[in-house]
Amino acid sequence: MTEYADSGAGNADFEVWANLFTRCRAFGHPSELHGGLCGRLAAGARLEQQQWLDVVCEHMGIAPEALAGDDDIPDELPDFMADAYRTTLEELRSSALEFQPLLPEDDYAFEQRLQALSAWVRGFLEGMAVAAGERLGEAPGEIRELIEDMVAISQVEEAADADEAAEVQLNDITEYVRLGVVSVFTEFNPPEKPSSSAGQTLH
């Protein structure tokens, strides 16, 4: 079993994702990819494994065919991303509010954490727009207000001072985003009825 096999998408795993991106010589930001996945799932979309891998490859700047035989691409990438998909969906569905956006730990520089949050929110908004389309305009007022706030957050990438007040503000904004994502998921994903049929999607 590889070091990635049991890794989910929680806060503690950002460095694992970042290392995998480095090994793949990937473009893009790990937080933005995770945000894009969460945006799709929160808006009600469900992806088959190949669809999700296509999204991964596009974001990372990898040719899809490279997954099958490129020595520069880790063999565990498809399984890691499939596991990340399942873990993220499970966390979003959890009544215990276990969901966490994929962001760097507190020992990263403030600027890096701020940029990662901005990238995550940017990815979330893009993923949600792809999946929800015109339905976003029909969402309740509090959801539309949340989206407006997220647009503003996605555009903030620099801070004047990384003092204690800024740290508190960053933590507050992160928690606002986290709970907001759960609200969006609840709005667009009615409780599922038990089913004995097995599909080919990752959920």
TrEMBL record:
InterPro entries recorded: YgfB-like, YgfB-like_sf
A GO-annotated cellular component: cytosol
Gene3D superfamilies noted in UniProt: YgfB uncharacterised protein family UPF0149, PF03695
Family to which this protein belongs: Belongs to the UPF0149 family.
Protein name: YecA family protein
Taxonomic lineage: Bacteria, Pseudomonadati, Pseudomonadota, Gammaproteobacteria, Pseudomonadales
